[in-house]
Design goal:
Elements (H helix, E strand, L loop, with lengths): L8 E9 L5 H9 L18 E7 L2 E7 L11 H16 L7 E7 L5 H14 L7 E6 L1 H10 L7 H6 L3 H10 L3 E4 L6 H22 L4 H6 L1 H36 L3 H22 L6 H44 L2 E2 L1 H11 L7 H8 L4 E2 L2 H41 L1
Parallel strand pairs: 1-3, 1-4, 4-5, 5-6
Antiparallel strand pairs: 2-3, 7-8
Protein name: AIG1-type G domain-containing protein
Organism: Candidula unifasciata
GO molecular function: GTP binding
Length: 413
């Protein structure tokens, strides 16, 4: 009776690490073929996400290679945004999810900067990715030679790891049962086979133990991803938005001099555009809230500018009214229309006493003779009240102007 064929198991591995760490070379070791371009230079060969697959034992293994996060040419927020995009593509290439993240590092080059890289990876993938992480240390071809040179011939890799300090020791303490030393230059077929089997079987064990890392986990980590991107973009965003705020402030100061309806609409459109841009760049992190408050402060200052124009128009109307009232008296030599007397009485607070005949004449709209002293008294009282009103309006304008200046200083501070 023929032996039953063992069911094939699909595995998906994502290669991670810094430029020149050996991601592509390790991928080729797993594939047992030189399918990824390799480089040990400062510039990475891997610029786009790519995947290859192989069959090994009863496994169908897909290996996904992508640019390293916080790489030599991935320091800006814009580049990190691209890195997050690449990671999303890499996960999308793994049907059903990722079985293992293979973090590749050099034995003698894991520094505090590398630790930051791992922290950045956690910001992208969330806590769950640590459950599916394997650390592959390259440089196995020189390990024994180095030990012999140091007088420690025969020392095994894990003993050496436990003797280390600093970032490398922390990494080992976190993932010691998932720490592998490999030689990507190995020529011996049996040793090459052993290396492949170690990595693939460890990935399968993680799959059984912790399950796959799916796109659902990646989406849940979006808040951390956005925070990482905005933090890196923050210096640039602060500078560019402050420049835009400066231009808005200039527009506001110009509106203090003169303002039409179209000028107001254009200004408000610029404010709305900037607020929309800040909301988009903030990604819901709240890191740009201070900048948003400054924009709102400039926006609210527009109301104060409108108040100054309204008060200025009132002053102008009062001045014109005073001149008109005085001219009526002077031209008439003490004669005025009833509407003028009524207005003057209302403004100055004078009580006008008149005989029924006079009132009747006034009601009929006839000119009424007013003694010269009455004219002088009425004119003086009117002028006094007008000056009081104008003075009060000026005080209000000054208060509004001071409020505007305060808001301008606040948003430029």
């Amino acid at each position: 009776m023929a032996a039953k064929l063992e069911e094939e198991v699909e595995l998906c591995l994502i290669m991670l690490g810094k430029t020149g760490a050996g991601k592509s070379a390790t991928g080729n070791t797993i594939l047992d073929q030189r399918l990824f371009n390799e480089s040990s230079n400062a510039s990475s060969e891997t610029k786009v996400v790519s995947s290859k697959f192989t069959r090994f034992d009863n496994f169908i293994v897909k290996v996904v290679d992508c640019p390293g996060l916080m790489d030599t040419d991935l320091k800006s927020g814009e580049d990190k945004e691209k890195a997050v995009e690449n990671m999303g593509k890499a996960i999308g290439m793994c049907n059903g999810g990722v079985d293992a993240f293979i973090v590749v590092t050099k034995r003698d080059q894991f520094t505090a900067e590398n630790q930051k890289s791992l922290d950045a990876l956690k910001s992208i993938f969330g806590d769950k990715y640590c459950d599916n992480l394997i650390v592959v240390v390259v440089g196995g071809d020189t390990f024994q030679g180095d030990m012999e040179y140091e007088g420690c011939g025969g020392k095994d890799f894990h003993t050496w790891c436990r003797e280390q300090t600093g970032p490398f020791r922390k990494l080992y303490d976190d993932f010691n049962d998932r720490f592998l030393l490999i030689n990507n230059r190995e020529k011996d077929p049996d040793k090459k086979l052993k290396q492949r089997r170690e990595i693939i079987h460890m990935a399968n064990s993680l799959k059984k133990l912790n399950g796959k890392y799916t796109s659902t986990y990646f989406k849940k980590a979006k808040a951390l991803q956005d925070k990482l991107i905005v933090e890196e973009n923050l210096p640039f965003l602060n500078e560019t938005i402050q420049e835009r705020l400066g231009l808005l402030t200039k527009d506001l100061l110009n509106l203090k001099k003169s303002m039409s309806g179209s000028d107001r609409d254009k200004f408000l459109q610029k404010v709305d555009d900037l607020k929309k841009e800040i909301r988009e760049k903030d990604r819901g992190t709240g890191l740009l809230n201070k900048l948003m408050e400054k924009v709102k402060s400039v926006e609210s200052a527009l109301d104060d500018v409108e108040k100054t124009h309204t008060l200025a128009r009132k002053i102008e109307q009062l001045r014109k009214g005073e001149a008109g009232w005085s001219n009526v008296f002077k031209r008439s030599t003490g004669l005025a229309v009833v509407s003028g007397i009524t207005a003057g009485a209302a403004i100055t607070g004078l009580a006008v006493a008149a005989s029924p005949l006079v009132l009747g004449a006034a009601a009929a709209g006839y000119l009424i003779s007013v003694p010269t002293y009455a004219f002088n008294t009425c004119e003086a009282m009117f002028s006094y009240k007008k000056k009081q009103a104008i003075s009060e309006e000026k005080k209000q304008i000054q208060a509004v102007k001071e409020a505007i200046e305060s808001k301008v200083k606040k948003q430029t501070g």
